[in-house]
Amino acid sequence: MTRHAWIALALTLGGCVAAPAPDPREPLLAPDQRITLPRPGDLGRRVEAVQLITGRHGDQTFVFEGHLSVTPERLMLVGLDTLGRRAMTLTWTDAGVEVETAPWLPASVRPGSMLADLVVLYWPEAVVRRALAAAGGDLTEEPHARTVRLDGKELLHADHSWTTGGPWTGTMHYVNRAWGYEIDVQSQEAAP
């Protein structure tokens, strides 16, 4: 993947802000909109999933693979580029968020923003509501959709094919209006 492609990927993942934040691990849903992370164990179950992710930002489209593992003690996300190279490893435990990135990955990629998206998209409704409360956010939950609003404005909307609380096998389409990107996810959860 070219340098330009990785820069655009950073934009796709919500990792680009006008002035770089000092800590790319900070869980931002939007510029200056931090959420309070729950605990990995608050998901309420173990998950092993592989996801094919197609992101769009403006006229740029990018595809990458994510390997997600969640246990009561930790979440681990490994991102691979289209050549199979490890771009990033994010590990979240009760002790905090640790990130390892490939030297070629642009500094504008914000792993904390990826983690914030994962939490609001996948964690149980009550947990997400608590996480959003401090930021003044609100969650609307439907059987196959979620919408996050901040200050009354829609920030993120997702539609997914799986049953809420069920295995993450199927498709998801979501838009984060604050960062200006759109994501399609094909997800396959491994059997427990």
Q: Could you characterize the architecture of this molecule?
A:
- The longest helix is centred in the middle third of the chain and has 12 residues, at 111-122.
- This protein starts with a helix and ends with a strand.
- The protein has a ten-stranded antiparallel beta sheet with strand order 7-6-5-4-3-12-11-10-9-8.
- The model is unreliable at 1-12 and 14-18 (pLDDT under 50).
- It is an alpha+beta fold and 192 residues long.
- The chain has one domain (3-15, 24-189): Clam (outer membrane lipoprotein receptor (LolB), chain A), CATH 2.50.20.
- It contains three helices and twelve strands.
- A hairpin with a 2-residue loop joins strand 3 and strand 4 (60-70).
- The radius of gyration is 15 Å and the shape is globular.
Order of helices and strands: HEEEEEEEHHEEEEE
Structural class of the secondary elements?
alpha+beta
Number of helices: 3
Helix coverage percent: 10-25%
Strand count? 12
Beta strand %: 35-45%
Task: Return the average pLDDT rounded to an integer.
Answer: 84
